[in-house]
Amino acid sequence: MKAKSGAGTLGTLHIFDSTLRDGAQGEGISFSVQDKLHLVRALDELGVAYIEAGNPGSNPKDLEFFREVKKIKLDNSRLVAFGATRRKGISCADDANLASLLAADTEDVCVFGKTWDFHVTEILKASLDENLAMIKDTVAYLRAQGRTVIYDAEHWFDGYASNPEYALSTLRAAVEGGAQCLVLCDTNGGTLPDAVRESTEKVVAEFGLPVGIHCHNDGGMAVANSLMAVKGGALQVQGTLIGIGERTGNANLSTVIANLELKMGLSCLPPGKLATLTPMVRRVAEIANVTVENGMPFVGHNAFAHKAGMHIDAMTKNPRAYEHVRAETVGNERSFLMSEVAGRSMIIEKLRKFDEHIGKDSPLAQEIVNRVKEMEHEGYQFEGAEGSFELLVRKNLGKYKPFFDLHYYKIIAEQPDGSEGCTAFAQIKIGVDGEDAITAGEGDGPVHALDCALRKALERFYPGVKDIRLTDFKVRVLDSRSATAAKVRVLIESTDGEEAWSTVGVSSDLIEASWIALVDSFEYKLILDVEKRFKAYL
User: Fold this and answer.
1) pLDDT band at 485 (very low <50, low <70, confident <90, very high)
2) d(Cα 293, Cα 305) in Å, to the nearest integer?
């Protein structure tokens, strides 16, 4: 794995992504080897300086990953192997974890050691002097093997608060061993920003080496602490791109990056890469099988969403009214949420996507406003279903052509013997341009079975359908007084790994409401594909 020249030099700000290791420690996260390889490609494409790829001594999966990743040519990033200082009572040459660290064959390694005297004596059960020797020996050994060494000072801020002189002595041991970067870790995630800046300034002034910051989010301060460390002179920021990690997670690098570049005027990605931040976050989330929170700063679905009528009216006049940065600078887009408080300005703004000459007095605009009100009276809510709303607009503007015609669908559900639960089967017949397709699907419930059958039928005509993944399925009873005959609203959230959208269906029949939302989801994806091909053609 070839390293990029100049990374880690004093005066250059770098992003160090730990999604493959720290991110994998989050609840419900489990990366396969292929997942990790996909993540490496995505992070390199985004342009982070360092990708911490895992601990090769921790499990066979990481050993296999390090063998496979050597086949990937990186354009922007340096791959980093991660491990601990040698164990107490043995030499570096006899330490199996250090042997694995070297076997990973990366030019850069990151090793962590104990900083907090409490951890040394109570957890590690070593003497304070022995811990210093372990740090110095390990760094010197790795340097002698030709590695660039980044030293992570675990529990730095707790250790510095408890025993500042000993905490500093651990950094001196790393420097004496030849460490080329010192990273201050808020491992318990409970430090406040002013303490982070003060401590960082102290280390920068004393050692004259590049200093990094590694924050956990237990106090909700990980992003703020990372930025304050940079204010204090830190030149490397560690975290995970979507903030996943152990307990409450790590510093969210998507938020850190956007703030560094847009608010602090500091370049930390290659030119032009900031505009790819949102799609890259969604790509990483897809690989990790998690959903990007709608309210995530800069890259979330709601980061540039506006609902109140007064806000929307102001936004149509000047976006600076209620947006601190332009959505496109981070690869996101502005959206106006349909609701009872949105007002006509929001609908007009959406219509202008299709016809820029439509005004508030347009009869067509009034027709769509009236139709929206009718559907809201029926139980629809478009605030969280932008996909369905766009399809509604297209239909009223005459800019919609169905991608398929439904002839019928049938659902069979049964309760088998044993503990397998309910099994459902769906049969469906559709037509596309005069050609019919009949397919069947089996699922864990009727909606799942319908989804499987519809996918099979459509993939024959539209291969892009196989990229659709349903990320959420919500059902709300609209009139509980009607008991089992009540109307229900079904909201489906979907993604293709790059875009995310939501659709809605309403009916007194749960299956029909689900079908309406499901069809909207598939048709919205197919419209996106058509528009992408058209843009590519232009």
Assistant:
1) low
2) 13
